[in-house]
Amino acid sequence: MPMNLWNTKIHCKDSNQYINSIFYCMDYRNKIVKEIVHQFKYKKTTSIKYTLNQIISASLQNYKQYFNKKDFLIIPVPLHKYKQRARGFNQSEIISDIISNILDIETKNNILIRFKNNPPQANQEDSTKRKQNAENIFKINENLKHLIQNKNIILVDDVFTTGSTLNECAKILKENSAKDIYAICLAR
User: Fold this and answer.
1) Is the confidence at residue 117, as pLDDT, over 60?
2) How do residues 123-180 score in pLDDT, each as one tens digit?
3) Which domains, and CATH codes, for the chain?
């Protein structure tokens, strides 16, 4: 079952990484966790968000004091507009809203834009193909980039596998003057 969100952390040491730390709460190798994420993401079982809220809320309670809402901004990994329209929602936005309510930190859903409708990362065979698939698929919303300048960013996604998608998002944010980037994922 779920581990404490903040007990499991990866420090990014690779020079190509733009993320300071990645936090996750569940082990995706667990069949139950995989089914929860699958139901949430692909079967449109958005009622799972109440369970996710409980898991994330319990995990973040002891860490709220480390997040000054003036210094942080939450940004979900965006879906391409066609994928979001087909799915009906962006699971990362739902997770971001949960975290936002717990930490009292603003979420901005439209700072990052996925302008390239690439194949899903889950369909990529290995880390090299995942990295190539995630390259140059995001851009910054020029009208809102002033909001990330000198801000610490909490980047939110559902599953961390190789980190290619998160790293590409973080790269764009850093190139546009974001300070430190932290990622929170439901599962790894």
Assistant:
1) yes
2) 888 888 888 878 999 999 999 999 999 999 999 999 988 889 999 999 999 999 999 9
3) 9-187 (3.40.50.2020)
Buried residues in 70-109 as b, exposed as e (16+ CB within 10 A): eebbbbbbbbbeeeeeeeeebbbbbbbbbbbebbebebbe
Residue 8, pLDDT > 70, answer no
For 45-105, the DSSP string reads -GGGHHHHHHHHHHHHGGGGGG--TTTEEEEEPPPPHHHHHHHSS-HHHHHHHHHHHHHT-
Report the phi/psi class of residue 91: left, alpha or beta, with left for phi > 0 and alpha for psi in -120 to 50.
alpha
Secondary structure letter of residue 156 according to DSSP = E
Return the structure tokens found at 21: 């730390």
The pLDDT confidence band at residue 12, using thresholds 50, 70 and 90, is: low
Q: How many CA atoms lie within 13 A of 49 on its CB side?
A: 17
Nearest to 109 by CA among 142, 82, 144: 144
